[in-house]
Amino acid sequence: MSSRIRTYLFVLLCLPVFTYADIISTVDSTDIDEMQSVQLTVRITGTNQVDDFDLSPLNQDFEITNSTTQSQFRSVNGRVSSWVEYHIALRPLRTGTLTVPSLAWRTERSEPIEVRVRPVSDTVRQEIDRLVYFEVSLDKPTVYVQAQAVLTRRLYYTVGVQIYGDLPGAPDLADAVVLPLGEATSEATMLGSRRYGVLEQRYAIFPERSGELVIPGFAVTSSVRLADRGRRGVRVQAEAQTLQVLPVPDTYPAHLPWFPAQSVRLEERWQPDKLRLRAGESLTREITVVAKGAVGSGIPPVDVMLPDSHFKQYARPPAISDEASGRTTTGERTQAYDLIVTHGGQLSTPPVSITWWDTAADTLRTTSLEPRALMLIGDLPGTATATQEHTAGEADDNIEPTPADAPPVATAEPPWWVWPAIAIAGALAVLALLYLGRRQKPVDAQKTARAAIRSAATIGALQDALLSYASAQWQLPRSQAADAIRHRTQEGAALLDRLNRAGYSIERVRPSTFEAPCLALLQEIRRSGQTTNARLQDTLPPLYPATRPEGLT
What we know:
By secondary structure, this protein is α+β, with helices and mostly antiparallel strands. It contains 9 helices and 31 strands. The radius of gyration is 44 Å and the shape is elongated.
């Protein structure tokens, strides 16, 4: 034998010997009753680490209640051995002959194992059912599509029962919206002579299609203490529930959106809340639909537009919310509108109503808001309406002229002491006014306006503060203040345009964004007012002229 061959043989003898991988499954028993578990052991040889071992085939006939892993690696005289063992506790899901399926790892597979599962006696089953059981119910057997049905789960258990794990979550339904009605509750109750603990869950279910809706059953694992068998594990089953979903009734108006609910309420809110409004004033109107037994996304929009002849109106995106209590779901949809008064007059808001289907009484209903009477005063510059001109003409026509031949009304000569008394009273009134004027602290309009701007919660409040201050500073009607700001200040027109765009933008703009430019505009209005007053004083004639103008006698 050549030296080269001997070298090769020596190297081969020194290399460690690895065994091929293999997988073997065994169980501790092949004959059990439905309350027992079977211990499955799976050994994979040739490795000491298995990260991708799939146990999901076991879920077909068994519930995995526990799983542990052991591994070993040995190297003796150059010979290496290693293995991984899985110890899995399996609880049968039904009685009969069940199969522990073949499990695979890489290219190897274990052999399947049959396990016989015997039902327990009727006596034992009745005893278990008295110790722990589920009660599942629906509040109604039939429901309209998109209407609410309430599913209630109650788990009753008595002394000696232990519940493993959490209660099941909300049912997973492909053709329905499911909302939990609060958290699970726990209480105690007496049924006959036995005291039970009760775990309760409630869910609101809104089917999206008509037909039959199946709510699947479920199970939880627990253990009970039996008189002659000690503590045994049991699987507490809850049966499936079936709900019949009705289509939209034929009597519902076809041109209206389908809206089922248990009750519907309309609410209206005005900010500021007053019935007399002046031209140029901005305000907010909110209409809220509150629907019991419905979700907010299922509430249709309500038409609440005011007449364009008196208002400019800008809609905000709707606000939608849901509130789930222990018994039902209440949905809300709020539609807000920013308004600006443009023309004066008297009007009542158009009626606001919403049509819906009363699922409790199984009938069609309409809920409405009462009209609101408004007094609108003044017009924005250049926007006088024909209605107001007509009203003014009617007022003039109602004045009755005095006949030319009407006899003069005789007047009596006052007593001699009347005129001295009037003179004395007038002098006292002047003195009182002077005294009160010196004691009363004048109101600082600019300070008030600055405070209003800094605390403004809406864009409309900023506009209101600017218009109020300009009206007071320039001694103008409020309806003319906006036009005066645009013509008497350099930055006023641009700022008012920015405020209008921000107030009616879809995106919500914070009033604090405009605090600095609004305060700067106050200073400009104040300087402009002082200049205007000085100019007026220079052009006024003297109160006591030294000489009488020619032409006057």
